[in-house]
Amino acid sequence: MADQYEVSETGAGTLAIPSLRWEEFPESPAVVLLDQTRLPAEEVELVCTDVPALVQAIQTLAVRGAPLLGIAGAYGVALAAVRGFDVEEAAQALASARPTAVNLGYGVRRAVTAYRRAAAGGDGAEAAAAAALAEARAVHAEDVEASARMAQHGLDLLGELLPGGGHRILTHCNTGALVSGGEGTALAVALAAHRAGELRRLWVDETRPLLQGARLTAYEAARAGMAYTVLADGAAGSLFAAGEVDAVLIGADRIAADGAVANKIGSYPLAVLARHHRVPFVVVAPTSTVDLETKEGAAIEVEQRPGKEVTEFSLPHIQGGGVVGGTGIPVAPLGALAYNPAFDVTPAELVTAIVTEAGVVSPVTRERLADVCSVSRWR
Ligand code: MRU
């Protein structure tokens, strides 16, 4: 049985969202997560004192979003090391918990490499565990800085693309403080525009089937005082047709060497709509999301999730029990087959720009992407 339990509600009403932290409780160190399956109805923390608990939290999307998965993976390795568990086994379990977001493997690799290096140097188990934890803290701190840099680069880019100001931005899934040590990726750019008085409206795709837009992005936008409107994913087309969208801003789970972008299912149709309506389609992601080993978009492994996420309304935030374990209300006939890929892949030719902490890639080509990655301090 995984060692995972809930603690009291976190303080509501503050803008800073503590999505994940390392905590040294007297009985055990722990990775403490804001349980995202319960938002927006409840702010409940999940305390993971071992790796199986953290893996379960990753798989049920209690913790989610590419950068935060990297941070969680790194702390998970540290947790195994500090508690004296098998670090290699833990690293393997964490890295394979979800297949698409490359940041998860990146965070795990950083912490396990630090651990191995210290262990190989004969430093002893305690020092090796301390090295893993220090590396996890570094991954976390770098994400805070990357997030701030992406927000600034993204704001500058919006100024160039949309010189008139008063932006109406459409976003998909959730890309804010809930997926980051800082303020996130795409939503951090929208937040920067809001603070600069440049955001007229944030259009929030609900993001079927797990509603990361309606539940999480709207929650963050409301806390930040942004002017936002939630729409059903299928309503985006008529919004474009009505001329109500100036730019699309999304995040990414993995960017292949050819610039193809894997992101939450429903992103690719937005890219097609944006091209048809001549609206910029901008991806915001740290260079840790770029996977130069994956040569092209078609090679990206797309996670397939349980069909009942589509055929049932699970409403875990109301019913409790997590997205996967929730008791769903059927919305399709018993036994209906469901197609439920968690992500889709948008080819580079539909992407106007990729905003990273190390600079903006536009036009999106293999060469320019590799150049930006080569100047990143953290790759
Ligand atoms: O399945 P999820 O909720 O983990 O998917 C998250 C997304 O697709 C985000 O858009 C992506 O991770 C970018 S967040 C910076």
TrEMBL record:
<keyword id="KW-0028">Amino-acid biosynthesis</keyword>
<feature type="binding site">
    <location>
        <position position="212"/>
    </location>
    <ligand>
        <name>substrate</name>
    </ligand>
</feature>
<dbReference type="InterPro" id="IPR000649">
    <property type="entry name" value="IF-2B-related"/>
</dbReference>
<comment type="function">
    <text>Catalyzes the interconversion of methylthioribose-1-phosphate (MTR-1-P) into methylthioribulose-1-phosphate (MTRu-1-P).</text>
</comment>
<dbReference type="InterPro" id="IPR011559">
    <property type="entry name" value="Initiation_fac_2B_a/b/d"/>
</dbReference>
<feature type="binding site">
    <location>
        <begin position="64"/>
        <end position="66"/>
    </location>
    <ligand>
        <name>substrate</name>
    </ligand>
</feature>
<dbReference type="GO" id="GO:0046523">
    <property type="term" value="F:S-methyl-5-thioribose-1-phosphate isomerase activity"/>
</dbReference>
<dbReference type="InterPro" id="IPR005251">
    <property type="entry name" value="IF-M1Pi"/>
</dbReference>
<comment type="pathway">
    <text>Amino-acid biosynthesis; L-methionine biosynthesis via salvage pathway; L-methionine from S-methyl-5-thio-alpha-D-ribose 1-phosphate: step 1/6.</text>
</comment>
<comment type="similarity">
    <text>Belongs to the EIF-2B alpha/beta/delta subunits family. MtnA subfamily.</text>
</comment>
<dbReference type="InterPro" id="IPR042529">
    <property type="entry name" value="IF_2B-like_C"/>
</dbReference>
<keyword id="KW-0413">Isomerase</keyword>
<feature type="active site" description="Proton donor">
    <location>
        <position position="253"/>
    </location>
</feature>
<feature type="binding site">
    <location>
        <position position="98"/>
    </location>
    <ligand>
        <name>substrate</name>
    </ligand>
</feature>
<protein>
    <recommendedName>
        <fullName>Methylthioribose-1-phosphate isomerase</fullName>
        <ecNumber>5.3.1.23</ecNumber>
    </recommendedName>
</protein>
<dbReference type="InterPro" id="IPR027363">
    <property type="entry name" value="M1Pi_N"/>
</dbReference>
<feature type="binding site">
    <location>
        <begin position="263"/>
        <end position="264"/>
    </location>
    <ligand>
        <name>substrate</name>
    </ligand>
</feature>
<keyword id="KW-0486">Methionine biosynthesis</keyword>
<dbReference type="InterPro" id="IPR037171">
    <property type="entry name" value="NagB/RpiA_transferase-like"/>
</dbReference>
<feature type="site" description="Transition state stabilizer">
    <location>
        <position position="173"/>
    </location>
</feature>
<dbReference type="Pfam" id="PF01008">
    <property type="entry name" value="IF-2B"/>
</dbReference>
